[in-house]
Amino acid sequence: MIEEQGRVVAVEHGAVWVETVRKSTCSSCSVKAGCGQGLLEQLGASGRRGLIRALCDMHLKVGDSVVIGVREDLLVRGSLLVYLLPLLGLFAAAIVAEQFGLTEPWVIVSAFIGFAVTCMGVRWRSRNVATDPSLQPVVLRALLTGTAAAF
């Protein structure tokens, strides 16, 4: 389970909205000068706050500190779906266009069309499974007031 600490900012029936602070480890990394994440930290974009809806069966109130979690396999499957599938669509469309004997500009256009179609497919699937409770973050535990990090 991948865990993140946050603070409850809104309460719904069966769920809470949790505010988290995006953290970076760039200050301890040896390649921070050549990394995009390091550049974002220098620009001040790494400390932004994010809102996450997490399922919860505890009685929480606004301001409570909590730990939310997401299963690792969901993160891996989601990453593959979002990053790998559109690339596979791009390459597959280019290969099919080349097999049909199209010229290079049409192969390139076909590749971009394949990329766009698979991106739309990923977006459609994401919208369809967005309300599936087994794919949602959950509140794992509430933190005591003294152990909460400053927000």
Task: Walk me through this protein's architecture.
- This protein has 151 residues and is of the alpha+beta class.
- The protein has one domain.
- Helix content is 40%, strand content 24%.
- The protein contains 3 helices and 5 strands.
- The chain has a 5-stranded antiparallel beta sheet with strand order 3-2-1-4-5.
- A hairpin with a 2-residue loop joins strand 1 and strand 2 (15-21).
- Helix 2 (72-99) runs antiparallel to helix 3.
- The longest helix has 28 residues, at 72-99.
- The protein is elongated and about 65 Å long.
- The mean pLDDT is 85.
Share of helical residues: 40-55%
Q: If you average the pLDDT, what whole number results?
A: 85
The best one-word shape is elongated
Strand order of the largest sheet: 3-2-1-4-5
Radius of gyration, in Å, reads 21 Å
N- to C-terminal distance = 23 Å
Low-confidence stretches at least 5 residues in length (pLDDT < 50)? none
Specify the number of helices.
Answer: 3
Oligomer: single chain
For the sheet with most strands, the description reads: 5 strands, antiparallel
Give, in order, the helices and strands.
Answer: EEHEEHHE
Strand content: 15-25%
The domain tally reads 1
Number of strands: 5
The class by helix and strand makeup works out as alpha+beta
